[in-house]
Write a structure and sequence with these properties.
Elements lengths: L11 H10 L5 H7 L3 E3 L5 E3 L1 H11 L34 H6 L8 E5 L4 E5 L2 H5 L1
Antiparallel strand pairs: 1-2, 3-4
């Protein structure tokens, strides 16, 4: 086994699921099991922890360098733009609700402006009144 591993390292939800499954292993063993290693021509295995950590951050949709992913797929990362759908709805995706740590059932008050929509989260105190 003197060649670089041919299988692609895990990414996204598959990576998160595998890391959770391997919670009993060390971080280096997790990285290796998820495919983040190479084998040198001398047969030495090298674990690439930086690529592993970056893949975990990306899988959790955490941007630490301030760049947008630019992959063009809606739903993977927040683009801070939405488009009115054919049925007239505006859909605010999960990237935003995750970023704000919103839970199912959280309520918002909607204020309409001339060219804007403002959402204000309704506090539990306001719900009781």
């Amino acid at each position: 086994m003197s060649k670089k591993k041919k299988n692609e390292p895990l990414t996204g939800d598959a990576l998160l699921a595998k890391v959770k499954e391997l919670e009993h292993l060390s971080k280096e063993e997790k990285a290796k099991e998820c495919g983040y290693y190479t084998v040198t021509k001398n047969g030495v295995e090298r674990v690439n922890m930086m690529k592993f950590y970056n893949a975990l951050l990306e899988a959790k949709e955490i941007e630490i360098d301030g760049k947008q992913s630019g992959n063009g797929r809606g739903g993977r990362s927040a683009s801070y733009r939405i488009t009115v759908q054919a049925n007239g709805n505006l859909l605010i995706g999960a990237a935003y609700t995750k970023q704000m740590d919103l839970k199912p059932g959280d309520e918002f008050e909607i204020s309409l402006g001339r060219k804007h929509i403002r959402l204000k989260q309704v506090d539990e105190d306001e719900l009781e009144e």
